[in-house]
Specification:
α7 (165-173) runs antiparallel to α8. The chain is an alpha/beta fold and 308 residues long. The chain is elongated and about 70 Å long. It has helices spanning 29-45, 58-63, 74-81, 96-99, 103-114, 136-146, 165-173, 177-184, 200-203, 288-306; strands at residues 2-5, 17-21, 49-55, 88-93, 117-122, 149-152, 157-158, 161-162, 189-195, 209-212, 222-229, 236-243, 254-259, 270-280. It folds into two domains: 2-162, Rossmann fold, CATH 3.40.50.620; 188-306, Elongation Factor Tu (Ef-tu), domain 3 (Beta Barrel), CATH 2.40.30.30.
């Protein structure tokens, strides 16, 4: 799969494709259905598939700190898209200049001149261009004029409900990992590089692998039974805290994982942490002794969940 960072990196060889446009946050079952729809058409037309997405996501640009938490950072999204029949991912830089371009300019510059799109799949509620003036009808009209077909995404329903990133965020926020998994088609994961922390966990007998999440808001918070992937022995069971560590006056989101029966140095390793079961919400403790007692209880709960 080829990653194209920015429209300025489009080359003549990228022209001629079937494409879809969206945030693809989470790459959930609804997204996967779209990718399957795209792959079928690509095979019929003997053309490559291209996913067009944005960085940052439009809501993050317009809403800043009020934007909903991401399910997947860009690296996680790209990793998830690799599992499907996607040949190229075009990441468009969503800045003020991009936001101010007209809908017609977007179609001309990206879809026609940049990619030479032959078949395009978008949601029938898709809006784009300055002041969101572009819509599905405009795309269809221009497509007829310029020789490309525009079709709407098939709704993907589970138990009568349309699968969406919003539904998954809501499930994760209430700690309902089973529902999130049902919509994602897999357990929820976060990934990152293990970094040096303040080593406080070692002082109370619970050393942790610390992963900075590089997010303003996380979709999950609290204490969880988790599995870590990306090391020689996997999965490795553990207990994790996601949050701001109020007991030690933390200020930024951090994922701290205490791995069971594991004592290797893994600083700098890129790992995936899979959330299996929520134990409790994050809260502040009056002392390290109280925190240690609670971590011991959390660890027992996680071990009981895994049957170890």
């Amino acid at each position: 799969m080829e990653l194209i960072r920015g429209a300025h990196n489009l080359l003549p060889r990228h022209r001629g494709c079937v494409a879809t446009i969206g945030n693809f946050d989470g790459v959930h079952l609804g997204h996967q259905a779209v990718l399957g729809q795209l792959a079928e058409k690509a095979e019929a037309l003997c053309l490559p598939t291209t996913v067009i997405t944005f960085e940052p996501q439009p809501q993050e640009f317009f809403m800043a700190d009020r934007a909903p938490p991401r399910l997947t950072r860009l690296r996680e999204k790209i990793h998830a898209l690799r599992r499907f029949s996607v040949d190229r991912v075009l990441v468009l830089i969503f800045n003020e200049r991009f936001a101010n371009q007209s809908a017609s300019e977007f179609i001309k510059r990206i879809l026609v001149e940049g990619l030479g799109v032959r078949y395009l799949v978008v949601g029938d509620d898709f809006r784009f261009g300055h002041r969101r003036t572009g819509d599905f009808e405009l795309l269809q009209r221009v497509g007829m004029e310029r020789g490309f077909q525009v079709v709407s995404m098939r709704s993907f329903l589970i138990d009568g409900e349309r699968v969406s990133s919003t539904l998954i965020r809501e499930a994760l926020a209430r700690g309902d990992l089973a529902t999130a998994e049902k919509y994602l088609g897999r357990s929820y994961r976060m990934s990152g590089r293990v970094a040096h922390g303040d080593k406080r966990g070692r002082t109370i007998g619970f050393p942790t692998a610390n992963i900075f999440l590089h997010r303003k808001v996380t979709p999950v918070q609290g204490v969880f039974a988790v599995e870590m992937y990306g090391l020689e022995r996997e999965p490795i069971h553990g207990v994790a805290n996601v949050g701001n560590r109020p007991t030690v006056d933390g200020t930024r989101s951090l994922l701290e994982v205490h791995l069971f029966d594991f004592d290797q140095e893994i600083y700098g390793r890129h790992v995936d942490v899979e959330f299996r079961y929520k134990i409790r919400d994050e809260r502040r403790f009056e002392s390290f002794e109280a925190l240690k007692a609670q971590i011991e209880q959390d660890s027992r709960a996680a071990r009981d969940y895994f049957g170890i």
